[in-house]
Amino acid sequence: MPASAILKPTLRATQRRQGRAAWAVNVPPHLSPTGKRQQLFFASKTEAAVVCEQLKARKDNFGTSLNALTPAKIAEAAEAYNLLEGRNISLLTAVRRCLGIEDQRSASIPFRELCTLYIESKRGRDERHLADMRRTMNRFPSLHDRLVSDISHRDLSRC
């Protein structure tokens, strides 16, 4: 574990003279969202003190959150880090992207249902257009049961 960080606002006189934020908080790498040392600047001591308290809470909660992880979850996280190695993407970013894809898939509907809903919504309008849509739907029988979110231009060019 890294040395205990001293989390308190520091007055920066040189910055005040230059018209910049006068209070600074030094964030050690293990508490920084970037994983690197940061220096945050604030106009008032109160703002800086609030951030210091948040960082202290994060530091205190870190130990307790680790206890909640089972050895299996830790091993799974280690494997995930191995898979991401050399890809310049964080585990958190990868998980968020994956969840976004899953949300998109769960909101999607099958291709045939999409075409049918579209045709029904346009009923009574341009019948030639609707006939074209029915023919288009029938041109792609292999896509009928696939989710729309899973279909790419490559799938359409194969048909």
Task: Describe the 3D structure.
- There is one protein chain.
- Helices cover 56% and strands 8% of the residues.
- With 159 residues, it is mainly alpha-helical.
- The protein folds into 3 domains: 10-68; 73-107; 111-148, no CATH class.
- It has a 3-stranded antiparallel sheet, covered by helices on one side.
- The longest helix is centred in the middle third of the chain and has 23 residues, at 45-67.
- It is elongated, with a radius of gyration of 27 Å.
How many strands, which pairing sense, and closed or not: the largest β-sheet? 3 strands, antiparallel
* Count of extended strands: 3
Overall structural domain count: 3
How far is it from the N-terminal to the C-terminal residue, by CA?
Answer: 58 Å
From the helix content, strand content and strand pairing, which structural class follows?
mainly alpha
Overall form: elongated
Which strands sit side by side, in order, in the main sheet?
1-2-3
Overall pLDDT: 84
Tell me the β content. Answer: 5-15%
In angstroms, what is the radius of gyration?
Answer: 27 Å
Low-confidence blocks of residues:
none
**Which series of helices and strands comes N to C?**
EHEEHHHHHH
Q: Helical stretch count?
A: 7
State the helical fraction.
55-70%
Which key phrases capture this entry?
about 160 residues, three-stranded antiparallel sheet, 7 helices, 3 strands, elongated
